[in-house]
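Worked example 2:
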Amino acid sequence: MPSVPSPSEARSSGPAVPGRDGTILEAHNLIKTFRLGGRDVTVLHGVSLKVKRGEFVALMGPSGSGKSTLLQLLGGLDRPTSGEVILDGEVVSRLSEGEATRLRRDKTGFVFQFFNLIPLLDVYENVALPFTIAGVDPRRGEAAARIVDVLEMVDLVGCERNRPDQLSAGEQQRVALARALVCRPAILLADEPTGNLDYANSGQILDKLWRSCDERGQTIVLVTHDARAAAHADRVLVIGDGAIRDEIELGRRKEIDPRPLITRLAQLGL
């Protein structure tokens, strides 16, 4: 990232091959096979999906269902055995390793269950890391403005000089979320971001994710096994045994009530 685009440029930048229906992410017949113990184990069995720009989608399923593997393929962290992923108009499987790295850096933000903060850096420096790596001064100009903006969004103003060991688990995850959002990625991919948090802190993180989508148009794909977390999404894709077993439309709601989703999942025997 040699320079930081202005907010208007960031909002107006579109896909290289824009989807006619506003699609920002597509997967076509994804199959993923691993070699384990001398035999091939297929984790994903022909998964296809679409995510529209500004949509909040949850991939929900039990441990071992293939949802985290699917998220890694969607974000370009791994490549499918067969099938294609198209992210913001670019076919990820056709990119070289360098091009795939560039796509991840420019188009995606990642939040994981483990915060992955750098212990020796304070909050501001951890959030600023994408700019620092790119050689952009994070204390000047547009970069500084963006850092202040995301720190305000995650309610960490006043904590800029604190190191990770001086923060609660919930605060550390909010730092990780701010770091993922600071470059205004085309899509945010979150893998069990509340898995290490208690009920109250989980609610705060989910609220920040929902607000970034509703108020800022951030596209989000969330992996979770928790119906309460998945209920924040506009749409839930139920993953089981490496395939999409059902699709549940929830729509955008101001009041997040997990009960309709839980009822639907119970009807499905989940």
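The CA atoms of residues 148 and 253 lie 28 Å apart. The longest strand covers residues 23-36.
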